[in-house]
Amino acid sequence: MGRLYFRIYLAVLGSLALFAILAGLAWRLFIDSDRLGPQSELYQAVADQLAPSAALPVDAQTTALARWRDLSGFDLALFTRTGQVIAEASDGTLVQTIAPDFLGGSSRQHGRHWAHVVQLSDGRWLVAARPRAERSQWWRFRWLAALMAIATAVGLCAYPVVRRLTHRLEVLQSSVAALGSGNLSARVTVEGRDEVARLAETFNRSAERIETLMTANRSLLANASHELRSPLARLRMGIEALPVPAGDAGRVELARNIKELDQLIEEILLSSRLDAQHTDKAVFEAVDVVALVAEECARSNAELTVTSADLPVLRADPRLLHRLMRNLLENGQRHAAGASVEVVVDRHSPHSISITVCDRGPGVPMAERERIFEPFYRLPGSREQDRGVGLGLALVRQIAARHGGTVVCLPRDGGGSCFRVELPQMD
User: What domains are defined for the chain?
Assistant: First the structure.
């Protein structure tokens, strides 16, 4: 019921059904068969010619009615001017259901069905009705059945039209969702010349403009970051050539700042490459995740625990996974207040691996656990001396997403935080 095409289609069918019912009721209530033509005069003329003469004996009149009953298939009965039965040719039920006040019109309701009543020129009444055995319950609603048949035919013809219209809207909605998720190449095939087609054209122009602006922005960011490396290298060489002792505090601080700036530029370049739309799976290879994590833990003196045997081998970019682990470990050490960082590798499902990095730092408030993955975001109260450049966790999420995985920040019992990365197998 939530589908647009289904709601439109039901609205069309509902309107048509309501129209059919109202039209049928209006026909039954306001249309008099006498107004549709000279039926009563025609019936009377024909009946006068075919009805047996009033001068004949009752048996002869009954025989004549029986002969016409066999020819027409209608039950027949003759009544006097005052409503007394003269002769009958029926299954025996016609006269029993005719009340005296039944006579006096061109057609009347006979039980659940209609019967024709004609007054002959000599004053007698002739009643003709279908035999009860031939009458069916649906015959009374034949008008409604005909209208519903028309409605069904119109409904079958209307469905392809409604579906075609809403299908284009669904395609447009899918393209808008794809564009919002980062697929800047999403476009819609323009079909027709109506409002939906013009909306598709407007979306394509907007998407093309957005893609052009984003491409120019990434190119500018990447080029600027790349060009900054040359003056940074010259600054590093100039500092090393200064005639001051190697352990001088000012020289050490300058070298540290240049290293931090170089790291920032490197992370900006990597983030720009990860923002590219298509994943370069050509560099993916079979990776022993436990060995890779163990190597980074040994480099950072972190404690490693592997809780599952026979972990699935992942196809991944080992360079990016090394960077993911390094950023998580550096983040944990930065906030661990001297405590060791613990890493747990486990099987999350038959086809995925989880890597959890836990520290004993101050923890992350619940309201900030998503925001810390935003580029250059710092927790309130963070000190400049924490040395973070604000891109480490953002890169972790980008790298996890590049491999079809996720990363979340969780609280740790006893204080601290845990960052859990889940990586699935990729074809």
Answer: 32-135 (3.30.450), 196-274 (1.10.287.130), 281-424 (3.30.565.10)
Joined together, the tokens standing for residue 322 give 């090394």
Work out whether strand 125-129 and strand 303-306 pair parallel, antiparallel, or are unpaired.
unpaired
Q: How far apart are CA 397 and CA 373, in angstroms?
A: 7
Question: What is the spatial distance between Cα 350 and Cα 61, in angstroms, rounded to a whole number?
Answer: 95
Q: Which residues pair with 406 in a beta bridge?
A: 422
Query: Measured between alpha carbons, how far is 315 from 64 in angstroms, rounded to an integer?
Result: 98
∠ CA 53-59-62, rounded to 5°: 70
Residue with tokens 């029993």: 96
Distances (CA, A) of 349 to 100, 309, 312, 353, 410: 87, 13, 10, 7, 19
Residues in the chain: 427
Encoded tokens for 92: 């025996």
Is the pTM above the cut of 0.70?
A: no
In whole angstroms, what is the distance from residue 186 CA to residue 323 CA? Answer: 30
Task: Round to whole Å and give the CA distance between 18 and 12.
Answer: 10
> pLDDT by residue (tens digit) across 73-106?
788 888 888 778 888 887 766 666 665 556 665 5
pLDDT digits (tens, 9 = 90+) for 188-215: 888 877 777 888 888 889 888 888 887 7
Backbone torsion region of residue 249, taken as left when φ is above 0, otherwise alpha when ψ lies between -120 and 50, otherwise beta: alpha
Helix (H) or strand (E) holding 355: strand 352-359
How far is it, in rounded angstroms, from Cα 379 to Cα 381? 6
| Rounded-to-integer distance, Cα 50 and Cα 148, Å | 39
DSSP 8-state class, residue 42: H
- Residue 82's nearest CA partner among 20, 125, 29, 36 is 125
